[in-house]
Amino acid sequence: MKRRFEGIIALTALAAIVALAPAPGAAQTSTAKTYTPPRTRDGHPDLQGIWQVLNTASWNLEDHQASLGIPAGQSVVEGGAIPYQPWALAKRKENFDKRAALDPEAKCYLPGVPRITYMPYPFQIVQQADKVSILYEYVNAVRYIYMNGNPHPRGPIEWWMGDSRGRWEGNTLVVDVEHFTGGTWLDRAGNFHSEDLHVVERYTPTGPDHLRYEVTIEDPKVFTRPWKMSMSLYRRQEQTELLEYACHAYLLEQEWDNPASSFFEQRGEK
Amino acid sequence: MSPRRVLAVAALIVVLGAVLAPGPAAAQAFFPRDTPKFPQARTWVAQKAKLPPYSPPRTPDGAPDLQGVWGGPIGGGNDDIEEHEYVDMTTPPQESYISDPPDGKVPYTPWALAKRNEIRAGLARGWPGESGERLYADPTSFCLNAMPRASFGGQEIVQTPGSVLMLSANGYRVVPTDGRPPRNPGTTSWLGSSRGRWEGDTLVVEVTGLNGRAWLDSAGNFYSENTRLVERWTRVDANTIDYEVTIEDPTIYTRPWKMNYPKRRAGTGRGAGGVTAVTILPPANAAKDPYASEFWEVGCHEGNAIGAHSIRRLGFKWYKGVRPPN
Fold first, then answer.
1. Is the C-alpha dihedral spanning B35, B40, B44, B45 positive or negative?
2. pTM of the prediction?
3. CB B171 to CB A142 under 8 A?
4. How confident is the model at residue A33 (pLDDT cuts 50, 70, 90)?
5. Chain B neighbours among A 122-181 (CB < 8 Å)?
6. Cα–Cα distance between A50 and A19 in angstroms, integer?
7. Residue B324 CA from chain centroid, whole number
């Protein structure tokens, strides 16, 4: 009886721990609630600095095993799999099979949002009263998230990086992005979207050197429902300035003097 | 102007600007043959000498306030930086951008002048002195942001504690002003390593670590990986920055030399010697358009530039920079 009583206590204690400990997915949110970020002069949470991901989403957003030059990785997609419509799942497979020729990143094009966030290059966040600017090391790309009261301009507009409008929700920078081209992908594994893509990003400081990055992806032409991905952004403490990755310069120089190059035709250039 | 019309005009400007003179200029105009010669350094130096003393406002950190959106010179560095007559509809007659030496010519050493002339002879774009051969296309045709031409376009200056940012529609520069040393010499690049400091009311930026693979203009004037730039940014009135850049490279030039032009605040309608780049709208319309002060995507390399394939197929070589003879 005594032993049984001890067992009940142990079970109760375990249940209490389970009940009190946040689920793995909720851990960051819980930390975020307790962390109070410093403020800018304008009174907003200060997200400024140089940031980068530390994951394999750039290769494949979903679970994938390792292959030559590609580290294994776990899905950053909520629920694991991207909810493609049947035709789009077939298209994703075709993209994967022909990725060397079809991936827009292989042509050094602006990679779109959110893909540029989780490419293996650092980026710098700069805040002003009426906008947040993100400077990317990749191709000297720059993105302006306007917070000046203007709504998205009237479309149709097809921009590689979309049109970004931001707002603050507590300590979170929320960015609404639309007006995309259908010409960008979500990763190197052929995950894709159409020009009807609508992205909502959430940047939440969870500590002095971490941001939680959560993205909702909506595209009724391609997916059966809106879906989410999330990951951490890490402050690059040892990298004190952005360098340059002039992708298209390296690519053109490599292909220019190669008479057998099919690169220019693959780009679809006249 | 309706948003749709703004968009149509913007698209047209971007396409024309990119096709006819790819580069950092935000807007490209067409010039008839009887266009009067545009004022550049000579006129600006004379105007500047007559300006009353000006004390710029200060940022909360106490630095001179250079913030705002500023245009660049007419032509945006997409022409010959030396004085020239009318060439074609995209290249109006202009004074030299060069304020020193006084003759307005780049003070090349003899071998470097011969190299510049060789490059120019192979431009195949209707420039005087061309041989008809095709040698190199302006590297900026490939949408690369390079110094010093990155300073020639429209850009917003933002000052933060410890750095000055120069932001444009398709690129950026970050200039640390916290006293850090230049980047390691092994990391040359198109924009190089910029380090800034304040001297009185002037932002002084030293640029080293350039890869020397871009030109100073679209007419073949060049620099090298040994080149050092010193920029001086000084407010001279409420709506004007006096921009001066000194170019030093004993392997190419006989002496340091300077370019000088005014950068005018966007939207002030100041045309002479400096365009209101960035916003393409006249001030009255810009005031009514809530989007006039925003940077919208250029997508240069992705489709607005001349296809690299076309340039390659015409027989132009890839420019890898010029090395001085040993």
1. negative
2. 0.88
3. yes
4. low
5. 124, 126, 128, 133, 135, 139-142, 144, 146, 148-150, 153-154, 157, 159-161
6. 37
7. 25
